[in-house]
Every structure is written in structure tokens, then in C-alpha cells.
Specification:
The protein is of the alpha/beta class and 584 residues long. The protein has 4 domains: 175 residues, ABC transporter type 1, transmembrane domain (ABC transporter transmembrane region fold, Up-down Bundle); 115 residues; 124 residues, Rossmann fold (3-Layer(aba) Sandwich); 74 residues, Rossmann fold (3-Layer(aba) Sandwich), CATH 3.40.50.300. The protein has 20 helices and 12 strands. Strands 6-9-10-3-11-12 form a 6-stranded mixed sheet, with helices on both faces. Strands 2-1-4-5 form a 4-stranded antiparallel sheet, covered by helices on one side. It has a two-stranded antiparallel sheet with strand order 7-8. The protein binds adenosine-5'-triphosphate and magnesium ion. Adenosine-5'-triphosphate binds next to α11.
Length: 584
């Protein structure tokens, strides 16, 4: 896509429309762009006038007057230029500030499936650097290109009316300049694309390695990773150097071409002055015109590239925004107090529409009862949770809460009546308290402490430096697994859900923590409907019902006693195995 050399008007139009809230500044900038061209061309024109009309005629007062006018024009140009740069950049910054919010707002509402299939780096790149690039469309691309083109147009006009012969002489080098500019533009574009690609590679590499540093170090893979990094680093440097090389060639080439133009012009112009075809004023003003024409031409190549890069970036950002992979949220049922019955009615589900992970699953949980789900790894246990809180929607069948399909509930209401403790606890950077309340102001510190005491987490939290204000590192890296688990239990309890869902961590913990966690779980599930994906017998035995899941199918369902009585039953086998372990 990056290599497509296209200039898409409808895309440009859509970018421009981003500035709609800043109409005034937009038109102000446009007006400035138009004004700047004649104002900047006026200066050399006035110099020419001064030489021909006043200096030659020895008109000192007239000369002073026109010198003042030139000064005035210069000041005017400076002010206009300042306003122009500030206005265009202000607009660019405002547009991308709004856009960042829009992108994040969109990402935050996307389906879980989007995150399954999109690298984290992609989403961050869209929100940060791609959006940043769109800024350049406003600050360097659009209006400055218009201003530059207008300047060239005006200069050319003034040159032609002053002396068409001199103008033609100057233009003889133009084909070389245009040729050089075109080649440069293409080369630089390619190397900038490479630079961007390498930056992305390096970002992705670093992000992953730093998160997984423990694995790198445990497996002594430092040297190997160092080598990988050096490779990427080398490519990155090379891409940058290539881009610099083109600049290093292009700028001197332009200098030479413009010097050649100048030389030709003076050679011919001097004779013209002698022959009285060209005025001296014109000869003095022409070098100024020339530099005024060459500078924008030299910059145009760059600016056009910038504009194009901005458009490519915007195309990607728009693609993300247009991606309508949100979970449909057209349910209208308000939550109210639920009694908390849950029913899976013949549910079949595949993450990828082909490999069904759950197959014709039906079961029911009565209000305030606890269902334990057991089954081997990959059998679809966590998937049940993903469906219940609508991270995904099942292809077949229906899920009912209090007798109503979960699709009839507004998603936010649905989720607010569920509390889920996930298998891998995720903690954010912030205090323990904030991690429990998730910055919900309606939950007081006292409530948190009360819940912690009830769960049995208060003791360990108190002991942390700073207690409830202890700053948790990103991902909770400085806390133990058991501690993280307990914090997530408190989180679930303070939200006082109608239905509690718990995906027990598989990791084994010491008997003491085990008993604390067991106690916490009992507190959590008391007086509410609960689904527990359990790995510990102690947890399972307290459940009203146990469901054995195998390869997405319900195999056994019933109370502990009932399941134990099944000859060659799966649960019975599991039970015996765990008992063996315990008695060893
Ligand atoms: N986001 C996903 N995208 C695609 N496939 C997935 C996704 N999550 C899980 N799967 C697949 O679905 C199947 C069931 O996964 P699930 O997480 O429900 O297992 P589980 O019973 O919770 O296992 P465990 O006991 O190890 O937690 C697995 O084969 C897994 O590979
Ligand atoms: Mg799981």
C-alpha cells in the first residue's frame, strides 16, 4: 500500500474535513497563503523600481520614501509569515488532538477479536505516530504548497512583464531542475518508507523483548537477541543514511543549477543593459526573483512527499476508524436487581467461524447457586466466560440471564451486573486502592478496606509500604501471584455483582495462601450466582453443581456426590488423581 503513488482527492477531502471545527482558522490560513505570494514578490519589484526610478534619477527623497515602503512590506511579510506558520500549525495540532481521542475512543470499543488479531504495536502506532504524520498535512503539506505554487506563479508573472527575454534565459535550466527534483522526490520517498518500516520493526522488537526480558535472560538468549537488535539497528541507520545521501546530493545540485541560471542571466542581462534592452533595476531584481522561485521549487519536492506520507498515514487511521468491529449494542434492558439465573441454550461458538470451541452447550444455573466447571486445558472453559460477558457473540444458540437473552441487555448494564476475575490477573500502574476501585469515585476507601478484611487481603495490603497507596508497577510485577489474585478478588467484591465469575489461576500456591484464597472464594460466592472455573478440589466440592467440559462438549453435570457415582466417570477419575496427589 505504501508504494502506491497516488493522489486521492476524496481522501484529501476527508482530511480537510477534519478541520471543520476550525473553519475560521482554516479560511484565515487560506487567505494568508494567498496574500503571502504577492507580498513577498512585491519586495524585489520595489527594489527594481527604486533602482530605475529613483537611484538613477538621483531622487533622494523619493528613494527614502520607497526604502520606507520596502521596509514596510518586509515587516508586513514577516508578520503574515508568522501568522501563517502559527495558524497552520495550530490547526494541525488541534486536528490531531481531536483525532487521537477519536482513535482511542474507537479502539476502546472494539471487539475482543480485533485485539486477538492485531499486534499491540499496530494500535499504538495508529494512535501516536500515524496521527502525528497527519499533522504535517496541515502544517507543511496543504497550505504551504499552495503558498509556494502561488509564489512561483507570481514571480514568473512579474519576471515576464519585467523582461521576457531575461525570463526565458533563466528558464532554460528549468527542465534540469524539474528532472532533478522529480528523481529526488521519488528516491527520498522510498528511503523514508524504509526508515518508517525500520522504526516500526525496532519498536515492535523492543516492546516484545522488554516485556519478555525474563524469558530472554532465563534462556541465556541475550547474545542472540543482541545480534537481532544490531541487525535491525544497522538497517535503520542505513535507511536514514540513504535518505541523507539524497539530500546531500540534491541540494548542491539545485545550487549548481540555480547558479547556472544566475550566470546565464547576468551574462545575457549585462549585454542587455548595455544595449538598453534591459534596465539595470531589472538586472538587480532578477537574482532576487530567481532565488524566490528556486527556493519553493526545491522545497516542493519535500513538501509533496510529506503530504503524501500524511495521506498514507491518514488512510490507515481512517481504516481503523471505519473498522466497525464493535459488538452490536442495541439491547435496551436496564439492569435492575437481577435474581441471577443463567442459562446456556444450545450454544455453539468458534473464534474463527470454523473450529468450533463450544458445541451445542446447554446448562442452567439457578439464582444464588454455584456452578464449578472443570475440564482439561483448552476444553473451552474460559471461552464460556468470554461469551457470557459478550467479548464474543456465539454463532448458534442463546445465553439467557433471568430468562432474557443477553443481547437484549445494554452491554454496559450487562457487564455491570457481572464481576469477573480472570485467569491472569491484570493490574495497572497505580495504587492498590485505584486498582481495586478502577478509579470509580463512588467506591469509598472504607468500603475497600471492609471488603479486603472480608476477603482476608487486608493483612497483606497493610504490610505493603504505604498500605493501600502502595504503587503497583505496570502489570503488577512487584506483587506475587497470590497477592495479585487477592487484589482482584477485592476488586470483584467491592463491585458487589449479581453474578460472580471466577477463572481460577492454575498455578499452584502454598497451602497457607491456598487456605486464604479458599476463604476469600467462599466469601465471594456467598449469596450470589457464581460460576467458577476450578482447578482445586476444595473449591469444586462446595459447588451446587459441577460441569465437566471436554473439547467444548458437556460430558458430565451434577453434584459432587452424583458425579462420583458415575462408573469410569471423568470427574471421578479427576478426583482420584487429585486425592493421590494430596496424599503423596
Ligand atoms: N482469542 C482466541 N482466538 C482464537 N482461538 C482461541 C482464543 N482463545 C482461545 N482459543 C482457543 O479456544 C480453545 C478453548 O480455549 P479456552 O481458553 O476456553 O480453554 P480453557 O478451557 O480455558 O483452558 P485452560 O484450562 O488452559 O485455561 C483453545 O483451543 C484455544 O486455542
Ligand atoms: Mg482458561
Amino acid at each position: 500500500m505504501e508504494n502506491k503513488n497516488r493522489f486521492d482527492i476524496s481522501l484529501l477531502w476527508r482530511i480537510i474535513k477534519l478541520a471543520a471545527p476550525y473553519k475560521v482558522v482554516f479560511f484565515f490560513s487560506a487567505a494568508l497563503a494567498v496574500l503571502l505570494a504577492p507580498v513577498s514578490v512585491a519586495r524585489p519589484r520595489l527594489v527594481q523600481e527604486m533602482v530605475d526610478e529613483y537611484i538613477f534619477k538621483n531622487d533622494v527623497p523619493g528613494m527614502t520614501k520607497i526604502a520606507m515602503v520596502i521596509l514596510g512590506v518586509l515587516i508586513l511579510e514577516t508578520v503574515l509569515r508568522y501568522l501563517f506558520i502559527y495558524a497552520t500549525n495550530w490547526m494541525g495540532q488541534s486536528v490531531i488532538r481531536d483525532l487521537r481521542v477519536r482513535v482511542f475512543k474507537h479502539i476502546i470499543n472494539l471487539k475482543t477479536r480485533y485485539f486477538d488479531t492485531t499486534a499491540i504495536g499496530t494500535s499504538t502506532t495508529r494512535t501516536i505516530s500515524d496521527v502525528e504524520t497527519i499533522n504535517t498535512v496541515f502544517s507543511q503539506g496543504g497550505f504551504t504548497i499552495i503558498a509556494d505554487l502561488l509564489t512561483i506563479f507570481f514571480v514568473l508573472g512579474v519576471m515576464l512583464t519585467t523582461s521576457w527575454q531575461l525570463t526565458l534565459i533563466c528558464l532554460t535550466t528549468m527542465p534540469f531542475l524539474i528532472g532533478a527534483t522529480y528523481i529526488f522526490k521519488e528516491k527520498v520517498k522510498k528511503s523514508f518508507q524504509r526508515v518508517r518500516k525500520e522504526i516500526q520493526r525496532m519498536n515492535g522488537f523492543l516492546q516484545e523483548r522488554i516485556t519478555g526480558m525474563k524469558v530472554v535472560q532465563i534462556f541465556n538468549a541475550e547474545e542472540e537477541e543482541m545480534k537481532n537488535f544490531k541487525d535491525i539497528n544497522r538497517e535503520y541507520t542505513q535507511a536514514n543514511l540513504d535518505a541523507i545521501l539524497y539530500y546531500a546530493i540534491f541540494f548542491p545540485v539545485v545550487e549548481i543549477i540555480s547558479a547556472a541560471s544566475l550566470g546565464l542571466m547576468i551574462w545575457w542581462g549585462a549585454r542587455g543593459v548595455l544595449d538598453d534592452v534591459v534596465s539595470l533595476g531589472a538586472l538587480i531584481a532578477f537574482p532576487l526573483y530567481l532565488s524566490m522561485m528556486f527556493r519553493p521549487i526545491r522545497m516542493l519536492a519535500d513538501k509533496f512527499n510529506t503530504l503524501q506520507m500524511g495521506m498514507v498515514a491518514s488512510e490507515r487511521v481512517f481504516k481503523l476508524i471505519d473498522n466497525d468491529a464493535k459488538i452490536p449494542n442495541d439491547g435496551t434492558l436496564e439492569k435492575g436487581k437481577l435474581s441471577g439465573s443463567v442459562k446456556f441454550d444450545n450454544v455453539s461458538f468458534a473464534y474463527n467461524d470454523v473450529d468450533f470451541v463450544l458445541k451445542n452447550l446447554s446448562f442452567e444455573i439457578k439464582p444464588n447457586e454455584t456452578l464449578a466447571i472443570v475440564g482439561s486445558t483448552g476444553s473451552g472453559k474460559s471461552t464460556i466466560i468470554n461469551l457470557l460477558n459478550r467479548f464474543y457473540d456465539a454463532q448458534k444458540g442463546d445465553i439467557l440471564i433471568d430468562g432474557k437473552s443477553i443481547k437484549e441487555y445494554n452491554i454496559q448494564n450487562l457487564r455491570s451486573c457481572l464481576a469477573i476475575v480472570l485467569q491472569d490477573v491484570f493490574l495497572f500502574g497505580g495504587s492498590v486502592l485505584e486498582n481495586i476501585t478502577l478509579r470509580d469515585d463512588t467506591i469509598s476507601r472504607e468500603q475497600v478496606i471492609e471488603a479486603s478484611k472480608m476477603i482476608g487481603a487486608h493483612e497483606f495490603i497493610e504490610k505493603l509500604p504505604g498500605g493501600y497507596d502502595y504503587e503497583v508497577m505496570e502489570r503488577g510485577a512487584t506483587l506475587s501471584m497470590g497477592q495479585r489474585q487477592l487484589i482482584s478478588f477485592v476488586r470483584a467484591l467491592v463491585f458487589d455483582p449479581d453474578i460472580l465469575i471466577l477463572d481460577e489461576a492454575t498455578s499452584s500456591i502454598d497451602p497457607e495462601t491456598e487456605s486464604i484464597i479458599q476463604y476469600a472464594i467462599e466469601k465471594l460466592i456467598a449469596k450470589r450466582t457464581s460460576i467458577i472455573i476450578a482447578h482445586r478440589l476444595s473449591t469444586i466440592r462446595h459447588a451446587n453443581n459441577i460441569m465437566v467440559l471436554e473439547k467444548g462438549k458437556l460430558q458430565e453435570f451434577g453434584s459432587h456426590q452424583m458425579l462420583l457415582e458415575i462408573e469410569n466417570g471423568h470427574y471421578r477419575e479427576l478426583h482420584e488423581m487429585q486425592f493421590l496427589e494430596l496424599s503423596e
